[in-house]
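Appendix B: complex inputs.
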Amino acid sequence: MEKGEWVVVIGGGSTGTGIARDLAMRGVPTTLIEMEDLASGTTGRCHGLLHSGGRYVVADPATARECIEENRILRRIAPHCIEDTGGLFVAVTDEDLEYLPRFLSACRKTGLPAEEISVREALAIEPHLSPRIQAAVRVPDASVDPFRLAVANAAGAREYGAEILRHTKVVGLVKEGDAVAGVRVAEEGDGRERVIRSRFVVNAAGAWSGKIAGMAGISLELVLSKGTLLIFNHRIVNTVINHCHPAGDGDIIVPAGTVSILGTTSVTVPEPDHDRYGIEDEEIPYLLEKGSAMAPFVRSARVIRAFAGVRPLFEGDEEGQGHYGHGEHREHDDRAVSRNYVIIDHETVHGIKNFLTVTGGKLTTYRRMAEAAADVACARLGVAAACRTAGEGLPGVASTEKPRNTFTICECEFVPRAEIQDRLEKLNAADSPQPPQALLADLRRRTRIGMGTCQGAYCGYRTAGVAHETASFSAREANWMLAKFLQERWKGTRPVLWGDQAREAALVAHIYRGIFNIDEKVQ
Amino acid sequence: MTYDVVVIGGGLAGLVAANVAARRGKGVLLIAEGLASLHMATGCIDLLGYAEPGDAMPVIRPWEALEELSAQAPCHPYAKVGRPLVAESLEWFAGLCREGGCPLAGSTGGENLLLPTGLGTVRPTYLAPETMISGNLADLSGNTGDSGDLLIVGFEGFRDFYPAYVAENLNLAGERYGAHPGWISNWPHAAGVQIGVPDSTNMRDLSAVDLAVRFEREEFRRKVAEKIKEVLARLTCGAEVARVGFPAVLGLEKAVEARHDLEEKLGLRVFEIPILPPSVPGLRLAGVLEKAARAAGVEVLLGSPVVGAEVENGRCRSVTVRTPVRENRYQAEAFVLATGGVLGGGIRVDLDGPREPIFGLPVGHPPAREDWSRPQLMAPEGHAFLRFGVEVDGGLRPLGRDGAVAIENLLAAGSLLAGHGSCNEQSAEGIAIATGYAAGRWC
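Resulting structure:
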């Protein structure tokens, strides 16, 4: 059987890569298509929080139960993507204290291990917590690297024979009568279009899934919710900190590698393209205000970047939509729309065969979403094989680190040159050609270059140099990738242009405009 | 403790002001919080590289452009100081560098030089350390300048210089500049090679300073020269190579000697190329200026920030310096504030706006934070936050909110000043030297 002849999965986020791996492990020839890079959409634009379920336990216990179950599975199959930081729910106000018994009792009912600890102990664990906190509960939250997770899933899918096409955009669906028979794609570089035929198409395009469904004439009731997050230059906390109250804005701080992330907001937006939405000036003080209730230190900590992702939330609840969600729906409030996922078998719901959409959901439950979506696809394809993703570790789990060339290219995130070269080779050997202008951004998701304090001031130049030296990119291409990379980093620095980060931005301008004399007409 | 003059800031402007004031017989204290911004600079003295923001081509004759700029923008520091004093200050500065063993070179006709960078782009500058001059690609009057093809040499394991990348970009730059009148028409060909670092067995990261220390040793230079000769023998187009470009690491203090020695050993001209910070040529300049200041009697207080000032009836009486153990006050008749712009730390940017932290001088800025910068990093017009600065009168005295002189015995100099866009103009050193010189004279 020819590759890609059975299932095309649209979307290279955690869900899409998870589905591709799940299907490939069941022996289903699969092609994954991602318009940009793996985890470049909503997957890579979140806290990177592996939920214990505590956040949902009161309002949506079914989602909370799924979170804790998946939390345990992912710790087994993807320990290399997870840092077991643990999490704390902290009660600050009297209202929080009133919420606390409901929270603890819901945790008990759901089977979520939650242990109340003394305020003194909490402050000993996290000295930056507000001295005014009144109670603290320990839960098994953790920090997960969403980039690594998606890349590992894609690598796992490839090991089982799947084809992963990045920088390839679905521009249309191939329809035969009332059935979907494949996709029409365009490559990022030259926009050349071609058709990939398949027996089944899985729409896992996340915030873009409404657009994909629209190509089949289907209208999906998606609520697109923009969430803005702030990154601090180091680990202001070593534990995931949650505000112990009904889920709200700016009430989670997650330690992520060398930095920490505070978020989010939740604002309904009309379009999925995150690049379309800037960070509003007033969002920053708002988030700092919210975060400072838990940890007043955030006000004086150094913010190095602001970024936003667009979550796809599913609102439709008509019978027969195959809606797996357990959440209650409220109008006008994104926070009340279920965070659970939905699988829509379009044959049942819309009379369109060989096509399903999976949307909603969250990073923590990506594997379960993938399993459920693959189950539906396999049933339609007559494949009897069962899901095995809960039992088999993701690639990289057992690898022992090779001795490395120790030259450090990125001093903020400690990325050695050997790792960059290794990743360059892998990107160049990928199924789809690597567009040079995206190379540094794609390397960033895999290595964390440029994600630390200096935001690419030093490693941008060095990585462009290494790419030119070792990966046969021309100087023109290296210049181009450097300019794109710096611009992309600038996009996140610009909204937080104060304090030491303003100085850092001045250093970037000084190096690239002042010393290297780059202008907007980079060759 | 009482002085005639307290200079706050150990960057180029502060060092110049302290030197000038001390040579006028003043008792000077120089207070510097950290490493000066010279450590992040190229080591070149830019006067005016671009006349208008977004100009595609650099200024060829900077003095003419400076006069035009001064006429159009009376708030520009060059307009405040005036061309004659700018010229005098640069001449004085060049003399100081020559005496200090770090001679500067430029064109005799007053044109800008065009020097390669560590990215392989080229940038205009007015005066360059003599060790860089053979890299010049501008067509200069009065002398023919250097000519001949370039061999760009880098070092294995040195992460801040990629010779093949530099060479290829230099060849690309020829497409832009080589066809343009004013710049040389016989643009040279460049090739890049990487050589191993002699006697380097340990594989740790090499910094520019590590290499500079090694280049002070004759034996190291001999081995480098041998490796380059081997490369030249293999190079097919090697016959044309007349100049060898290195990253700017040819010695911490004895770079002039190191370069001459390498030229003799290779039988070719040798030049340095400015790279990412920390800048070895900048370190050399800072060293020369600090040594000269101490020789002229300047007391230097390093590593401690000025945290406040005592101002009474419009005069500054003293400034307070925080040391690890206590706060000290230093009184003086006059004060020179040369703490730098946003990059140097002289202007702090808060969420609600920029401020000058020592004297609380007003700093003009657009009200909305989104207007502090442009959406494109490389926007031709540059970013407002890089131009945040302190307004001064014709005597470099900072103005208060009412537009009158704020503190009569306080002068400001360098990047701290409002009215310039040195990052895009390529004028930072010229402004620092001219205003530092004027402040040293007028305080």
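The longest strand of chain B covers residues 327-337.
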